[in-house]
TrEMBL record:
InterPro entries: DUF3311
Chain ranges passing through the membrane: 7-27, 39-58
A UniProt-annotated Pfam family: DUF3311
Keywords associated with the record: Membrane, Transmembrane, Transmembrane helix
Protein name: DUF3311 domain-containing protein
Length: 77
């Protein structure tokens, strides 16, 4: 069953893949950050963003599962 919460969960999990697969958007050296070329610091930034998005997706999934259990009387279908 597709719900708005599950769409948000999917977007949280897909966003890092799209960002990393779109290489043309970050395959450059400028702007450098503390001497590190853009190509490298952009990817390292996405490691942190991916962690946050995955954690958010997990928390949303837990909340969605709890609400489904409450609606079904304790059993998830």
């Amino acid at each position: 069953m597709v719900t708005p919460v599950r769409v948000v969960i999917a977007l949280c999990l897909v966003a890092p893949f799209v960002a990393m697969l779109w290489v043309g958007s970050y395959a450059k050296t400028d702007p450098a950050f503390i001497g590190i070329p853009f190509f490298y610091w952009y990817q390292m930034l996405w490691v942190l963003i991916s962690t946050a998005l995955t954690m958010l997706a997990y928390k949303l999934w837990q909340r969605d599962q709890r609400s489904r259990e409450d609606a079904n009387g304790g059993a998830v279908k």
